[in-house]
Amino acid sequence: MKLYPLFADLSRRAVLVVGGGPVAERKVAALLGAQAQVTVNAPTLTPQLRRWVADGRVAHRHESFRESWLDRVWLVVAATPDVELNRLIATFAELRRIFVNVVDDAALSSFHVPAVVDRSPLTIAISSGGEAPMLARLVRERLEGLLDHSLGALATLAAGLRKRIRARHPDMAARRRFYENLFTGPVAGLLRQGRPEAARQAVEVTLLAPPEAPTGSVVLVGAGPGDPGLLTLRALRALNEADVILHDRLVSAEVLELARRDAERIEVGKQAGHHHTSQDAIHDLLLQHARAGRRVVRLKGGDPFVFGRGGEELEFLRAHAVPYEVVPGITAAVACAAYAGVPLTHRHHAQSVCLVTAHGQSPDQSPDWALLAQERQTLAVYMGVAELGALQAGLLAHGRASATPFALIENGSRPEQRVVTGTLGNLVERAAFHAVRSPALLLLGEVAALAPSLAWFGQPPLGATVHAFRAQERPPPTPDVLAALHRAG
Ligand code: SAH
After folding, report:
1. 210/239 Cα distance (integer angstroms)
2. DSSP 345
3. Which residue ranges are recorded for the region named Precorrin-2 dehydrogenase / sirohydrochlorin ferrochelatase (predicted)?
4. Is 248 a catalytic residue?
């Protein structure tokens, strides 16, 4: 069966809904949204239907369905639990050439009600022709997430300007560019921020600007720790709208795969020991692409403002009057904690968290060891693999107990994640034994003791058990054995 998609204007047109239960109520709600004149026919009604009847928004007939009622309606919906009655209504409707929808019966229906994403006046209807309603629902949910709620306001704004835009850009290609910029550029951004007045002013400016001066922009996006499921909806949208993506090495391939197919991808990785693009060169690239009128996504691992030099990039963009937005991401400390089963704070174990980097500090700025060595505090140490020795020495020298537990998480949230556990006293030894490599994050503090019992993702932590086996040169237990042991406590 192939259906013809159609949007019907039902305002002030009579529609009959037979049935008074929750399904009928949902159909009536949608019909009222389209300003249809609804009559409900049922012996009993849901409380909401009763309220609509009491308010005069819906007419009600108690008596049994009569064929003659179809005389004056444009559409009929059969939503009764009585299969025979539904069939009868469908037959009468067919004879009178009135479109009928029988709830949950595609074969008896001459029109289907699609799954809808409502960004009025923009409306997206999805149908599987009655074959796979769950799939249609899934698609609807995906689109719901993908399409910002401000799209409706954007459509209304564009509608009001149509004539002026046409006059300003008589050339079709120029007009398309204008619309594209309107729908994905700063004006759309202002509407997303709930600032319709500013958006209107921005449109005025773009309508007055010379048409050959396209305005590029930069979105600084946090890509999270690697698992693409941890991207925000806004990050996904930015990736879908990008012309150019400048990304760090740390950004996972799975995340990059979600970006627009024809977006240009430029790696501007900065990693110790590898060829890297200097910060100045990154600034130049951002400026060059934005000035060429492109929508630039600057994609960074984790969150752009946590050891990501996002602040410096924004200062540069501001100084050069390039419009920008920032989309936060899940930072490594938060992600690694979640994926290793280490609550960053815990009523009984830690009252504060400290995000620190073990790397990149100037020599005259030695860390405040006394502060870092406090008890009942969780340290989340970024970029620390090479500095574990100094960290261990500093903390021990300032009184942090050698028995303080740690969890060192390598490739957090990625399929190859490894978690090494131990205590401050054997931190360096453990990390070396398991050859932990960057990217890895150290969580140190009382809460780290919970990792073996709360771990849920990937391999169980490589803790004392495995270490003991390896030290005796015996093959360690397999992960499922360890998992069973952990479950058993
Ligand atoms: N802006 C990033 C941090 C960049 S600094 C954020 O908010 O997460 C790079 C450091 O982050 C790495 O050296 C490592 O310590 C940590 N890191 C980033 N991703 C990680 C991951 N998936 N697993 C473990 N550590 C990670």
Report:
1. 28
2. -
3. 1-203
4. yes
CATH fourth-level superfamily of 338-488: Tetrapyrrole methylase, C-terminal domain (3.30.950.10)
- The residues spanned by each domain of the chain are 14-113, 151-208, 217-330, 338-488
Find out whether 367 is annotated in a ligand binding site. Answer: no
Q: Which of 262, 270, 300, 480 is catalytic?
A: 270
Q: Which of 27, 227, 243, 248 is catalytic?
A: 248
pTM over 0.70: no
210 burial via Cβ count (<10 Å: 0-12, 13-18, 19+): exposed
Residue carrying structure tokens 């449109």: 203
224 has a pLDDT exceeding 90: yes
CATH class of 217-330: alpha beta
Binned at pLDDT 50, 70 and 90, residue 489 comes out as: very low
| Burial of 346 from C-beta contacts in 10 A (0-12 / 13-18 / 19+) | middle
Question: Was 43 annotated as part of a binding site?
Answer: yes
**Chain centroid to CA 29:** 29
Entry field: residues in the chain: 489
pLDDT tens across 296-311, in order?
999 999 999 999 999 9
| Ligand 1, CB within 6 Å, residue ranges | 225-226, 250, 300-303, 306-308, 331-332, 336, 382-383, 409, 411-414, 438-441
Over residues 422-441, mean pLDDT: 95
Q: d(Cα 113, Cα 106) in Å, to the nearest integer?
A: 10
**Token pair for 456:** 């849920």
Q: Is the pLDDT of residue 249 over 50?
A: yes
CA of 99 to the centre of ligand 1 (A): 58
Please confirm, yes or no, whether 118 is among the known catalytic residues: no
CATH 2.60.120 fits 151-208, yes or no: no
pLDDT in tens, 118-132: 999 999 999 998 888
The residue written with tokens 């300007």 in the block is: 161
Question: Is 14 annotated in some ligand binding site?
Answer: no
